[in-house]
Batch of 4 targets.
Target 1
Amino acid sequence: MASEGQSLVVFECGPACRCGAECSNRVTQRGIAARVKVVRHRQKGWCLHAAEDIRRGAFVCQYAGELLTNAEANRRHLIYDCPEYHSSGRPPPALLVVREHLPSKTASLRLNIDATHFGNVARFVNHSCDGGNATRVLVRQTGWPLPHVALFANREILAGEEITMSYGEVKADESTLQTAPPCYCGSSNCIGLMPRDVA
Ligand SMILES: C[S@@+](CC[C@H](N)C(=O)[O-])C[C@H]1O[C@@H](n2cnc3c(N)ncnc32)[C@H](O)[C@@H]1O
């Protein structure tokens, strides 16, 4: 899983603030905010569904996982990309790579969060080629050096609907056609292939 381009950044109170957990500017810090359930799909594996209506703009959950160095993320990408990995019965890879363009615009921070082995329900959010109904947002907390990744509903999500997001753009180049895994998102613009990981 990868994402190219700039993610939206929001700012919240954090360890350097005097306010407590009840502060209204700590929206993403109180755990999973919507009732959700994990449902099995024949082709996509486990999926995250809304168990109640989720209003547009609402925080759903953080994307929790192991925070990796770039070198370790690249090493794991190689492992996760191997066909043997997928046929081994091990959990599907959930290594998310997001970039934050720093204010200077000349540098960017690459954040590698691997939820394959340790994570929360966000690891069950599947890809949709139409962008999905959840958007990834970087959350910076005052006094905390690194951003967190949070999922927000980008439209109203009805109870029973699958919660999806975009893993990145699908490039229909030759290497993608040969190596990209099949996509079953069912969107009208889906070409039947998932985005390939970009390190
Ligand atoms: C982060 S996991 C998502 C949860 C996963 N479905 C599971 O069973 O654990 C990413 C993996 O889910 C599957 N997946 C996600 N979106 C998919 C889609 N649109 N079509 C097919 N498989 C998908 C792929 O196996 C992918 O490597």
Target 2
Amino acid sequence: MKYTEIMVRYGELSTKGKNRKDFIGRLAGNVTKVLRDFPEVEIRPKHDRMHIILNGAPFADVDQRLKKVFGIQTYSPTIKIKKTLTMIEETALALMKATFKPGMTFKVNTRRSDHNFAYDTNELNQMIGDYLFGQMDNLKVEMKQPDLVLRIEVRQDAAYLSSQLLRGAGGMPVGTGGRAVMMLSGGIDSPVASYLALKRGVEIDMVHFYSPPYTTEKALNKAKELTGILANYAGRINFIAVPFAEIQETIKAKIPEGYLMTIQRRFMLRLADQLRAKRGGLAIFNGESVGQVASQTLESMAAINDVTTTPVLRPVATMDKTEIIALAEKIGTFDLSIQPFEDCCTIFAPPRPKTKPKVDKAREYEARLDTSALIDRALAGIEITPIYPNDQFLADKAQEDAALL
Ligand SMILES: Nc1ncnc2c1ncn2[C@@H]1O[C@H](COP(=O)(O)OP(=O)(O)OP(=O)(O)O)[C@@H](O)[C@H]1O
């Protein structure tokens, strides 16, 4: 089917009265970003709906991007035609043939803002319905809850027909919820937490700790590639790689084994917080889930959280692992997350971390270290990479390796 435009209905933002303009502007900007390699597409944001004029771009390709943009409740691929009865009949039939499946019920639903048009809505519903019955077998009409609604809108400039109401990603346009940093490991949970933060409209910068030479470049590239998948939901995400080996070595040399993990996490949180402040963010997100591992008991969280008063938000805190995995599969990060590249935390993980660390003890042990000098050196070594949807980092590396052989 050659659709000419997509009609987009806004999500939660329609209820946000005075912020509406900002929301619509952001959404239009985000749609523009994800469709940037379709230069022919025009985006026309209006007060109640957005029209995406395809100008020849294939709907199926645009659809792949659009369904991941937050702030869209539903959308319909639409065909704009001349306002003649014959054109409406022919297009209605073509749409039905493309989208109707045997066993479905349907109805025709006409709206008319051009009141000078020769037929009113009841007449059009009747005439188009009759025409379709004459052309197709096994049609069944259902007024209350039909499986397919053939929508006809007769406006001043043209008639618009659609037969699909597709569900958008929901949520709020990224950027309307403010800025934050996200602590992204290469695991399953933090990419899911990132997705959920983006869904509420928060613009995130990824903060990733890596520890060369203890961790390989592949582990770093895995986190970058996960960011590439998540950028589908954001348009673009900045990835901040923070060198962490010196801090880990120092902690390992000077801190009792039971507190290695707690103190490492306190340093991670401090670094994330400083980066947040520098970049104008208001919160820190992470992928912790209550009780999942030793560092994620409430006692542990409290002992780690002690280093900052900045809100630390944990979108997957109350989810079961199976629920997190289901979401990871849905958003497309799971297969990459389970690739076995070592994370900096696994390498320096003590065999028996304390599950109930004490804040006082953590502070006392930490006083043995030159915290601010360690933090400053790590911050001096950060690298920032802007990452776009589906940017690949692992494949490039594999190709380079192959080329060297
Ligand atoms: N190398 C890292 N860089 C950035 N953040 C990290 C790193 N390692 C852990 N974190 C943060 O700490 C959280 C808890 O990490 P941990 O390794 O204990 O748990 P996890 O359940 O395996 O999480 P994930 O599946 O996200 O790795 C992560 O979700 C992430 O937000």
Target 3
Amino acid sequence: MSVLVYVEQVDGKFKKSVFEAVSYAKAIADIQGSNLTAISIGNVGESELKALGKYGASKVLNVANDQLKNFVNQAYASVIAEAAKKEHAEVVVLSNSFSGKGLGPRVAVKLTAGLVDGAVELPKIEGGKFSVKKNAFSGKAFGITELTSPIKVIALNPNAFGVKEAAVEATIETFAPELKSTDLTAIVKEIVRATDKISLPDAELVVSAGRGLKGPENWGMIEELAGLLGAATACSKPVSDADWRPHSEHVGQTGIAISPNLYIAIGISGAIQHLAGVSSSKVIVVINKDPEAPFFKVADYGIVGDAFEVVPQLIEALKAHKG
Ligand SMILES: Cc1cc2nc3c(=O)[nH]c(=O)nc-3n(C[C@H](O)[C@H](O)[C@H](O)COP(=O)(O)OP(=O)(O)OC[C@H]3O[C@@H](n4cnc5c(N)ncnc54)[C@H](O)[C@@H]3O)c2cc1C
């Protein structure tokens, strides 16, 4: 018996959410008294794979196949399921990222396993029962799901558990499962990234702005503030609908759901559909000129003021602090 964790790579590197998923899987392995194996797909260097030992993976299955260099949902799901069978894994953990959201259900079907996606806590394993707390209704509620299948698949929400070190020596093993032709009907040859900015779902700090900014020409100060903080930028739905910002920045019920350590909302009213995607942020700072704006009700810190006065002052203060 073991726990298997899928470690998603981007350009041969692991993101923070991977170390978090490994830490989470290691904690489950410790509860069960079993070992943790990681499965890496794509061309990842040995030192990067070995580094997974720092978070508790004692074995790393390495699938270095050129056809799988870039993410292919169907094929990756087959490889993860084969790895789970090989390792007799009782629990399979992955990150509830863009690709994890597609992989989780596929892996679960292949293993006839129960799935919890959007997990926010370690499972409770008591009296033969295995239940997991998860986000429900776009983050407006939590649900407790009991998994009754012998194999369980858990997709962990980024930033829900944190990265925890549990250093062990990781051994690397080559794994080359046979792929069906139906798994490779589409191969991603190359991914050309539109931007090299910090990716929103992984960002620990997010600076977000809404219609209060009046127009796209005013985003310079938002980008400058985000740049100084090392934060990603986000926006409300009307802003991306009006093409002031790209749709990839739209957060909320119909956009991306995020849970960064810090979310700064500037000129955003705080409509329930917006809050659905950001309310699990650890600290929320709201800047709005209307003291009655609903966002203040969920804010940890609020500044009532005009964004065009407050943001430049914040930028100056940060520059002075950094200098
Ligand atoms: C089915 C459905 C799904 C939706 N999904 C989403 C979603 O995923 N994400 C989302 O964001 N919205 C979503 N919406 C839209 C949502 O209901 C709100 O309309 C939207 O969030 C409002 O965006 P906003 O706060 O930027 O704009 P507004 O509501 O226009 O608010 C602008 C805010 O800026 C403040 N302001 C104005 N000028 C300044 C200034 N100079 N300085 C400081 N503050 C200023 C105002 O006081 C106001 O609070 C959805 C709606 C529906 C019906």
Target 4
Amino acid sequence: MTGPTAQPSTLPITKIPRTGLPGHALVVGDPERATAIAGLLTDAALIGENREYRSYQGRWHDTPVVVSSHGVGGPGALCQFQELAEAGVHTFLRFGTAGALRADITDGDLVIAEAAVRDDGVTQQLVRPEYPAFATPETVLALTAAARAHEARAHRGVVWTRAAFSPMVRELPMNEYLVAGVIAIEMELATLLVFAALKGLRAGGVLVIDGNATVDNTDPTGYDPHRKVVFDAVARGTAVALDALVALP
Ligand SMILES: O=P(O)(O)O[C@H]1O[C@H](CO)[C@@H](O)[C@H]1O
Ligand SMILES: O=c1cc[nH]c(=O)[nH]1
């Protein structure tokens, strides 16, 4: 007869430690972005890697932080948010890229999310669609102050989180959201905001603009995030995001 097996020391999907993580996490889509940001931290250490999830722990201006990648899309990202929270994270900032929905919001600008349209394809399975996806107000204020300190061009507003990157046969409600004043589109933020609100945690997001989604995303070959203007803005936005993260008590 064998007894119950001991619980593994890491969580199953991200392979991060089960407990003891810092309370503050910067979450990003791209594992390479996580590695680049970890390179800026003091005493950075890889604490887990599995699938699209690559996680580091280190310090930014003496505050312990986690930097972790969640890949593309809300369902996969939710797995990361859940395991980070399980391991001790209480404050999340997503630092990603997004397409602009307004002509005056241009490549390299930052968008600070106040709320998100829940077209993310997964949170409808967590709570009714009428429930709002809102950023914790302190994250908006901290990101606004950090962007100002770094003299980064930043816009605040509602972001559209959409599960499918490119439309196919079904027409997008693009015009409706443009008229409603939605300013950018990406793929995971609403998932984070709803998850955090349901768990009583803090969350927000800041996004680097890498094109105009009203034009480029109708033909996916028109989308090119691998340009210097985007690369430079990601570097500048990293400092904005980390400064805002550690400014949150
Ligand atoms: O740059 P990241 O954080 O991955 O964010 C955006 O980029 C990906 C699409 O290219 C999606 O994940 C979208 O949300
Ligand atoms: O989802 C995304 C991410 C970046 N840029 C876009 O246009 N869409």
